[in-house]
Fold each of these.
Amino acid sequence: MSLTKADSQAPLMPADRAVVRTLLERVRQHRLKHNWSQAEMARRAGLSRPAYQNFENGYGNITLANLVRILGVLGLTNNLAQLVPALTEEPSFASLTQPVRLRARAVGKPKSPR
């Protein structure tokens, strides 16, 4: 499935907006826990103050790389793996109904002394 430019600029659905607001609020809370201003956070993340301010206020777009930078500054990059969990392979019905396959032992000739 490929997204067109129009698809990528489509407005967020209400549930998506709630997720974004929650994420931004949590980032803000972590920043305040460190007692950093938005300007200090921007400096530490290597962003301009307006870019960080727009991010935290929910305006504009931010790249994935910049989001990872921000989370790295806050010490939250270990939590990124939880965003997209590893895919676990579910056994198919066919594989569950087939008998277990056993391998025969190889019958070999006895080794001759050299």
Amino acid sequence: MAVESRFVVIRQGVEVETFMDKKAADEYDKMLDMADSLAEMFEATALDLDEKTREELCIYLAKNREDVLVALQAKKAKPVTTAKKVAVKSEETMPTVLTGADVQEQESVEPVTEKKASKPAAKAPRKTKANKDAA
């Protein structure tokens, strides 16, 4: 007999979502709490939003809270991680597949030559204690 643990998010007596791990269920519940708070805030404003639009907007803002905080300048944007940089770099260096028309067009364009980097200037010799005493 197999035993499964399930975590159910219940709102106003209605089962909303079921999760297999507690962390995901807690995060979803927290997101719904934020959406409820946002909905109350929007109800108190003079904005004329129908209920469905207000609900979708509140859930979108709650799901994307990190981006919202960055947009409000309440939080700094996270720097791009090395894994993302590597993925972007590998996409840039991937060869392009050309079709027949592209090949003809490519042949009419002069090839681009790369400039070789010049050698850096030689470093000045370090001053040693003997050199400093002599000066």
Amino acid sequence: MKKNFFRSAFCGVLFLAFLSAPARAQFYLGIRGGLSNQNARADQLKFDKNSAFLYGAQVGIKFLGLAVEGQFYRADHNLLAETEAMVKVEQEMDYYYLGISGKLGIPLAIVYPYVTVGYGTYSVDLKGLGKKSDRAFNVGAGAEVTLGKVGIFGELRYTDFGLDIKDIAWDFGGVDLHFGLNIHF
């Protein structure tokens, strides 16, 4: 009987503490830009690393240290490789991402450092070869500095995914560097 009373009392105190905590859920909209750095391979052909400007937008909701964010971004790459016969191969690639990410961080007074895990659709359009999409995870870390309703963030994100286009196995992946601006409501 005493155990049940103490358990119930403990749960009640935790429940009251949760209710008395200030609710700070924030909805936000933002834009992003940065560098996409893809390591592309097509069967035995490895393309040189090629950094390209990426741009996009996000919408999310943050509550205490947790955030859920929907994202879209794209980058246009010019891939270049050299075969064993010293023939140069150039390939234009448009790269798109549409997905959702969860963030777990420490909500300090102004700074919000976080780790992120996302899942979404990666679409690759190889000029002259076709367009294909696949779903994959991404992981990263970043920080957001918020002053009033404006937040500025920086984030590193690693991706790795593969596609078959025109019976050629393509492997993509790399580290993307994102910077952006969020408006909190």
